[in-house]
Amino acid sequence: MSRHPVKDHAGGRPVVPRSGPLRPLGLGEVRITGGFWARRQRTNAEATLPHIAYWLERSGWIANFDPDRLNGAGDGSGHAGREFADSEIYKFMEAAAWEVARSGDPALDARLTALADRVAAAQDDDGYLNTAFGHPGRPPRYSDLEWGHELYCYGHLLQAAVARARTHGGDRLFEVARRVADHVCRTFGPAGIAGLCGHPVIETGLAEFARVTDEQRYLDQAALFVERRGHARLADIEYGRAYYQDDVPVRSATVLRGHAVRALYLASGAVDVATETGDTDLLRAVATQWQTTVARRTYLTGGMGAHHQDESFGDDFVLPPDRAYSETCAGVGSVMLSWRLLLASGDPKYADLIERALYNVIAASPALDGRSFFYANTLHQRRPVPGPDAGTPSRRAAAGSRAPWYEVACCPPNVARTLASLAAYVATADDEGVQLHQYITGGVATQLPDGRRVAFEVGSDYPYDGTVVIHVVGHEQRPWTLSLRIPAWADGARVIFRGEQRAVVPGVAAITESFRPGEEIRLTLPVAARLTAADPRIDAVRGCVAVEHGPLVLCAESADLPDGVELDAIRVDIDPGASDITPGAIETDAVAVVRAHRTAPADRPWPYPQPVGTNTHASEADSAVELPLIPYHAWANRGPSSMRVWLPT
Amino acid sequence: MSRHPVKDHAGGRPVVPRSGPLRPLGLGEVRITGGFWARRQRTNAEATLPHIAYWLERSGWIANFDPDRLNGAGDGSGHAGREFADSEIYKFMEAAAWEVARSGDPALDARLTALADRVAAAQDDDGYLNTAFGHPGRPPRYSDLEWGHELYCYGHLLQAAVARARTHGGDRLFEVARRVADHVCRTFGPAGIAGLCGHPVIETGLAEFARVTDEQRYLDQAALFVERRGHARLADIEYGRAYYQDDVPVRSATVLRGHAVRALYLASGAVDVATETGDTDLLRAVATQWQTTVARRTYLTGGMGAHHQDESFGDDFVLPPDRAYSETCAGVGSVMLSWRLLLASGDPKYADLIERALYNVIAASPALDGRSFFYANTLHQRRPVPGPDAGTPSRRAAAGSRAPWYEVACCPPNVARTLASLAAYVATADDEGVQLHQYITGGVATQLPDGRRVAFEVGSDYPYDGTVVIHVVGHEQRPWTLSLRIPAWADGARVIFRGEQRAVVPGVAAITESFRPGEEIRLTLPVAARLTAADPRIDAVRGCVAVEHGPLVLCAESADLPDGVELDAIRVDIDPGASDITPGAIETDAVAVVRAHRTAPADRPWPYPQPVGTNTHASEADSAVELPLIPYHAWANRGPSSMRVWLPT
């Protein structure tokens, strides 16, 4: 079908490193058939993808590619949306590619093909492709590397083409992407413009394209972009060059900083380059950045990026829960980075953070109906804020409500592509067996390099329930190793196999056996609600606790409070009266209840009283209430509300 | 000299209401001759004003008014700076007008006259005056009311003209302002454009111009602008219409919201209008907004505006100390508003807040040398950040260092005009006597309506020392009343007069006597360091205390810490080991010392540990240190540093 050779299109995997301890298992090898994520995937397919397609068309962003709009009046008018609008189409195309592979939906397949034709029509003869620049009356090509996002759009186009290639094979989209990639190598190669894009993502796009085509020059170009950054080639701007990571070379940096999504995409591309080139120094540098960022600049939810103003990481331990920014796309970028580091190292800490980001950022963004989205994911909403109506795109990233669409609409398709490809983040293999990183309901079937066939089903009501049952279904005679990730919070986890129960500790629990078909491995994880504190340097949550349930961060939402009780006038008892698990028909059911005391803070003319002691409510009214806690990701599904994750004690 | 009648130019007062319980005393009646504020005024005159003049010229913002620049190439090029650059010239002119009145500096007087000529040359025949709009190749007049700032610039021009009129009399600047005001009334009057400016200040400018000219139509136009706001006439923008207070009519609002400076300027104009028109409903509405804002949306320093992104107030009790925005100009706006409410009500709580903002926001902005400025005034700086070098204007409002100049340079001239006119905020008079609101070193001399002459000198080393000595110098035979503001924090204050000591309580202490020349009234205010807590709903400072000394908020700065001790790893003992006052030769001397414990928070891979209790440092190293505390306003004068106001206990 295509004249371009496409490697490895069977697996359906977002990231395919040339080497590394773990080999990712893709959509061809892992299925999600039930439980939490199957529900989310179904909503993604049935509601979110059509919703995105509707808005992309309605906004005129798809029509930007049509010849009459592209070269229309010649006065630059007629381009709809922001300078990065093309990228939203590409992210939708990537999501559609994964979804077609997951479900086989022929209508979506046809829509994707038609969309590729429409995009292809806008490509210049030399491969250049952008609807906001380089056309009559619009700014010239590459005239604004800081803010123009041309290479950024290419990066998402390449990711979409790679997804399609790995799930379907080369097609017109792939041809378009190939011409774009060649154009980029010519234009920005060693003999070309010594520039780089204000918003990284071309790096990982080119590296993946090199993997799928097995052509070195794309990787070289990716490496060149990674190396160019950090040398003040981009302009100094209001937020400083750290905003786009042009302050310090990637291999010299010790922590992620600046715009969180940019930082995470760049780090992902750097891991791709390091893995392909065997650059252990670069890999080590990014691993250090990940560790420092997780230890000092990450919300309990796994969310990253504290500032609204520049969507950036704050200084160490600046993690205010009210007005937490924690952009949805930073959650996506965090999964991208952690997954690459997991494949490169085998360290389960990366899968721990993926799980946290999946349940508490990615799952929090879409409403339960899949038709509105959080852009920012605050951990404390003080007052109910109605969202925009369903027909109005939001101009604001920051609100206590989900919006159906945004003028900057990066988040909805970013979530959609992650959910559609989620099976590819569940398990990996090595020479001796399979590593199960995420506890979905579904099945895994693959073959090890020496031909051993490994297949098992996984059943659970995780994360509401902590029991995960694995049924071996393959007929492989030889022993193989099943490795189970034991999350860091899972003190007291147990594995039962062949009638024997053994305690396992956080990290990895491995069983090497000649498993017989029908045999069961039962993992019990202690998901019951637990209290969590914070490093004392996170000033903003001093004197508070959070409650977690398995991988779920819980929250109190005003919808569950008795009349007259306000969330900002509550203190919880220090011992959690956590109830047993209450798995619910709807996701907003409480999974824990804590005892709390209702307080009545006095409204003072000046809120800074003396002497000390008045902030302990000594003289204030005090009455006990039950405070149900729901999963954080489920809040704001019952109308405008207030909410808090961190509870004063 | 002028063909325009100018009322009341002797007093030198920024605000002259037609009625109200208190009559302001201006530069002609109050002198500051020594102490804290005299030092600040000297620095303002000798360093800051020449510094601002240099930068205004260097930036090209003054040259914008010159004909060759204004009508130059005709392609719109040649305008330097942002769309509101004109306003910085006007604020500088206002500052210069006050300073000439204060010091009589003939060179500055000549500079001001020359500048007025340069400005006058740019005025159109119909009175229009703006360098960024309405000229060849530039956007048309009033084509962008949301962001164009044309009326905003007029507001500052009117304030400058009023300052000059009240200290000198009508001059060319005043003629220019008169033509601008007439143009505004024609253009935006009941028969004109039914619009309003995205940035209020024209309201108070016009109201003051009405007072100085005694012409009703300027007041009517000010009232019209106040009434027009809040009805969604301005466009919905990313930050919402609350950003420019166009969400709720002024008389319906219950709290200040949106962009803090805009909110405070608008409220000031509304008080001016309410006072002149006897609109008690409007006055009451603004007083309620002030009260709610002070009770729920104000930093301990008196600073207002928590958000960086939109420079706006946050929700109630969202007052994070790290990355507090607390814009310097909001401190100026807060003084403007509180002063107007004080004149309209006589309530000393307004003078309390003025004092707080003066010592902890206005005084914090300029460096001790008067040549660099904070734009934002954070209450917690986690890491030392070097400022830009002295030759580079900062593009960033937010930093832990002062900058010599800003691309948006509102703050330096705003501070300068406040400091130059500071004597006018010290005292007021009514029919029976004088109210002393601020404890400067200097003198007050005025005449009561019935002819009684009141004169006294004030001496003190306040705020380092709490003793204020007032010497009567007038020969008035009849009794009059001296009213002394007793700050809200001053429990235990005493007044000694004629050998008798009496305890006085926060509020006002009044003495009505036939004072004899040379008699002394001695007020002692308990300034010694005290602990301060916070409303429990201010989550961001839970478990912390602040230390205040008189009106000074204190802070710990890294410059005073032993090597190896970090501010973010310190806890203070709950009882303040406050030393006696240590008045210093330089302002960075410590005025209090508290005992603290040095802790060694463990760096964990994940900063959210369990079980609860680990955030009390139970297992961590602990060693006592002495923690000197300096006035908050004096921090960052000894090189880049970290700093915190709120101290964990």
Keywords:
13 helices, globular, 9-stranded antiparallel sheet, hydrolase (chains A, B), 7-stranded antiparallel sheet, 3 domains, disordered N terminus, 649 residues, homodimer, Glycosyltransferase, alpha+beta, Immunoglobulin-like
* Beta-strand proportion of chain A: 15-25%
Q: Which two chains share the most extensive interface?
A: A-B, 72 and 72 residues
Computed over alpha carbons, the radius of gyration of chain A is 25 Å
Number of separate domains of chain A: 3
**Number of DSSP-assigned strands of chain A:** 21
In CATH terms, what is the fold-level topology of the largest domain in chain A?
Glycosyltransferase
Shape of chain A: globular
Catalogue the unreliable spans of chain A. Answer: 1-7, 613-620
The largest sheet of chain A, given as strand count, sense and whether it forms a barrel, is: 9 strands, antiparallel
CATH class of the largest domain in chain A: Mainly Alpha
H/I helix tally of chain A: 13
Could you estimate the helical fraction of the residues of chain A in percent?
25-40%
SS-derived structural category of chain A: alpha+beta
What's the end-to-end separation of chain A, in Å? 64 Å
GO molecular function, one term (chains A, B): hydrolase activity
Keywords (chains A, B): Hydrolase
Protein name (chains A, B): Glycoside hydrolase family 127 protein
InterPro entries (chains A, B): 6-hairpin_glycosidase_sf (IPR008928), Beta-AFase-like (IPR049174), Beta-AFase-like_GH127_C (IPR049049), Beta-AFase-like_GH127_cat (IPR012878), Beta-AFase-like_GH127_middle (IPR049046)
